[in-house]
Write a structure and sequence with these properties.
With about 120 residues, this protein is of the alpha+beta class. The chain folds into 2 domains: about 10-40, no CATH class; about 45-115. It contains 3 helices and 2 strands. The protein has helices at about 45-65, 75-95, 105-115, and strands at about 10-20, 30-40. It has a two-stranded antiparallel sheet with strand order 1-2. Helix 1 (about 45-65) packs antiparallel against helix 2 and helix 2 (about 75-95) packs antiparallel against helix 3 (about 105-115). The chain is elongated, with a radius of gyration of 25 Å.
Length: about 120
């Protein structure tokens, strides 16, 4: 662990190293190997402040538009601004997520439901 470089996204909780030997049927001598078990925890404050909280603020702003009077011009402006902010925010989230078509991330499903 002397070469370990601190990472801003992960904490290493514990590292176990076990030396074992295995004897294969083809050979007489044992073959030693090391089994490393690394227990890690993701630091989630980055995602909380950069993805979750802005998403919640945009949700609150979209709900505030229902509180404004119907004949108010600011209601339309706020609605269009929030829609544009959601679109840009979804683009930013899509850049950070791995490109795969196997599943849609939960934050993507949540954002899509908010736009409906």
């Amino acid at each position: 662990m002397s070469n370990y470089v601190q990472n801003g996204e992960w904490d290493i909780l514990k590292v176990n190293v076990v030396r074992q030997e295995v004897v294969y049927p083809c050979c007489d001598e044992p073959y030693p190997y090391l089994r490393f078990t690394i227990y890690m925890r993701r630091r989630n404050l980055y995602y909380l402040f950069n993805i979750i909280l802005p998403c919640l603020w945009l949700t609150v702003l979209s709900l505030i538009s229902f509180w404004l009077p119907p004949d108010s011009g600011e209601k339309i402006t706020l609605g269009i601004t929030v829609l544009l902010a959601f679109s840009v925010f979804m683009l930013l989230i899509a850049e950070k997520m791995p490109a795969t078509s196997e599943f849609v991330p939960l934050i993507g499903k949540f954002e899509t439901c908010l736009l409906k």
